[in-house]
From TrEMBL:
Gene Ontology CC terms, in alphabetical order: cytoplasm
Source lineage: Eukaryota, Fungi, Dikarya, Ascomycota, Pezizomycotina
Pfam families to which the protein is assigned, alphabetical: Ldh_1_C, Ldh_1_N
Region spans: Disordered: 287-309
Record-annotated Lactate/malate dehydrogenase C-terminal domain positions: 145-305
Name this protein carries in UniProt: L-lactate dehydrogenase
CDD domains, sorted: LDH_like
Sites where the protein binds NAD(+): G9, S10, G11, E12, V13, G14, D34, N95, V118, T119, N120
Family: Belongs to the LDH/MDH superfamily. LDH family.
Amino acid sequence: MTSRIAILGSGEVGSTIAYSLILNPVAGEILLVDPKEEVRDAQVQDLSDATFHGDTSTLVRAGTHKEAGQCDIVVITAGAAQKKGESRTDLVGRNLKILGSAIEDMKPFREDTIIVLVTNPVDILTYFAQKFSGLPKSQVIGSGTFLDSARLRGILSAKCGVAASSIDAYVLGEHGDSQMVAWSHASVGGIPLEEALPDASIDKASIAEDTKKKAAAIAENKGATAYGIGGVTSSICKSILFDECNIRPLSHYQDDMKVCISMPVVIGRKGIVKQIPLKLSESEQKELEQSAKSMREIIEDAEKEQNKE
Ligand SMILES: NC(=O)C1=CN([C@@H]2O[C@H](COP(=O)(O)OP(=O)(O)OC[C@H]3O[C@@H](n4cnc5c(N)ncnc54)[C@H](O)[C@@H]3O)[C@@H](O)[C@H]2O)C=CC1
Ligand SMILES: CC(=O)C(=O)O
């Protein structure tokens, strides 16, 4: 049977993810779902044009929310993006309402459907998507700090003169202001960072800050980000559909902290197959707990708002 990926939201991010999925073919069909039908249909036509040159056979078409609920993967990009000066968490009110109605419109879900959240604030929305959808928590995942970790590798690569693909370094916690870098586990070619590159002057605090601020720095001059998340999300889809079982820092439910934040997990066709235990240093553990605490406070406020309605 043809594998199908539905993308909710055919704006900047949704269409870029679709384009990335065409360039590195992963699924037989991509369905774009968006209440703005004219924009959606124009995106379908433009993206389809990128499939007719003879090297790829991915079919791109418009779909409904109901059809999305029957796909292998549903990628959610529906909702507002940050305006200048806004943080990701400022989007909670607006995007939670859109998420709630989109999930109701998709029900009933196929029992093995995997939902990948991209819309911000992605950790908060992952938590609520688990609650609203009723799917097993392992099947509802947020792109989380996979993008931040890629950015960190890029920055380290430029500083150290080592290919990003040879660097392992995780940003964990919130995809947002309270994120932290797990420096105690950063390595180059499998060797601890400082041992491998004793002469590299690595200012950890400034690198962590540049990583955190990268989205804002890009958006300052081009309005929004799209290509980074496009590449990262198509990679997540590939890991799922090809059951690759690679390790990625993705947002998922933490039993002990009762929030969704990013920690490394094994990702495959069933979604999160396994959590990878990571012993952080004492100060890193504190930073991570602080990040989880800030997510919990936002969840509690959002739940209070919902109970009022
Ligand atoms: N997690 C991450 O690393 C990243 C997340 N984002 C987030 O992605 C989201 C989307 O950003 P853009 O594409 O730039 O925004 P956009 O405004 O270009 O597109 C959003 C689209 O969602 C559609 N939409 C609204 N309600 C819908 C529904 N119920 N069903 C389906 N579609 C619906 C809108 O009509 C619009 O076309 C934002 O929240 C942004 O912050 C962006 C970049 C990276
Ligand atoms: C917008 C966003 O969340 C990012 O590019 O990291």
